[in-house]
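Troubleshooting log. The previous structure file for this entry was overwritten by mistake, so regenerating from the original sequence record. Sequence copied from the archived sheet and checked twice against the printout by T.R.
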Amino acid sequence: MTTHTIPVSGMTCGHCEGSVRDALARVPGVQVQAVDRDAAQATVQAPESVSRKQLAAAIEDIGFDVDPAWASA
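Regenerated output below.
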């Protein structure tokens, strides 16, 4: 498992945090550790088989933004 701290912009409330948490939790094997709108980030543990692009896509598919530089690193 790898720990990822994902920069997420656009979260403004607890509902936003919950939406991001749920989207990430739907990625197979991902365990959500924290989603923090004030810090503008989400922290997850994911299997090596899950790419940064997959994590970013899960968040972007529900309308939030992930720094493209993070997703392609």
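The domain at 2-68 is CATH 3.30.70.100 (Alpha-Beta Plaits). Archived copy saved in two places this time.
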